[in-house]
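Task card 7
Instruction: Convert sequence to structure tokens.
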Amino acid sequence: MVLCVRIYGLSPDFITYDMKSIISNLIFAMVFPIALVSCGEDPAPQPIEVGRKRTVLLYAVASNNLYSNLVDDKEEMLLAAKDMDLDGLSMLVYEVTKNSDPTLSEIVKDETGECRFEVIKTYDKNLYSTDPKRIAEVIGDVAMERSADSYGLVLWSHGTGIDPSFSTHGAKATDNGGFYERHLPEMYSFGSDNNPDINPSYYDEIDIDELADAIPDGMFSFIWFDACYMSGIETIYELRNKCDYFVGYPTEVYTPGMPYNLTLPYFLRETPDLVEGAKAFFNYYAEYPSSSYRTATIAVVDMSKLEVVADYCKAAYLKDKKVSSNGLLCYSRGRIGPFYDFGQYTKLMTGNNADAPDVEEFNKAMSEFVIWSDATPRDFNYQPIDKEKYSGISCHLYDPASTTDKANYYRTLDWYKRVY
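Output:
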């Protein structure tokens, strides 16, 4: 998608220029070059500004235990950029750490070919970087400072998919800062901002519905989550209007995250090749020298095919019965989730519903929706991943009888409203 900032369409009342000045300037603009030519002097050549083809923003919430990984990732980006032609391309990084003010910086290459990050803007720390107001502010700054034909977004931090942190970003309501005491530190949803300037003992997160509200519709050609558990159907559906393509991991990812020296050349280009970028990520872990790191999952999805999948699920899902998780691939561990394989879950629903459409309709829809996915033979629980059952997308096992805070939160999500 292309973000256009349009100036035309303003009402006449908005135009306040002095028409005499405009006419004078026009006459000067026409006469001055003629005068130069008549004096036998060539006019000075004017620089032609080349339009920016693509701007990619990496939004990194690293004010937590992932800080050293961000340092490594930025070095990987510079390593990749050194061998790239950056004309018409802009790679921006918004980052927040515990010890410094948040900044927006850009990769620049000097005349020797060396690359570095150059700060464009510094932000104050009186707002969490997981607050939707800050996310929207940064995206707006990107559109203004590095406008381009097309944009990409990489979201970098902790993640728990749709698991709610029950975060609130409204006005302060209590003496302790107005934060929800229901909050659990392990549940980040997306992001984990431990900003000691605001509250030294509190981690702020953003729930997935808040994140969707902070991202403008149609701005990004792709969103890539470099975070755990974000390739879930509920997360994807919440962001359905935000990007053309979505990349995420249904399971955890090791803390080094994406190898940016391998993936940056694929997504920082005029026409991104997200499948090859995803393959570079996957192969990095699948072929890792240490066998203990050979665990990875990933999926690339075409958002334009999402509603066909949703149509099928709406027709196939049982509305008032919880199905058993027996035999379903489970993609989470500990207190996260649990999340199960979306493809398996839907087929189980289909098999239990005599009125469901033919499962081949679902298979066809999924083959067009998930354009590439892969998984290593074992997950983070060291349990086997059956590639025949793996869809690349996770889901929540909905219990219609549950009245927990988490279940009630689930009922507010767009996916629940769409299919249940």
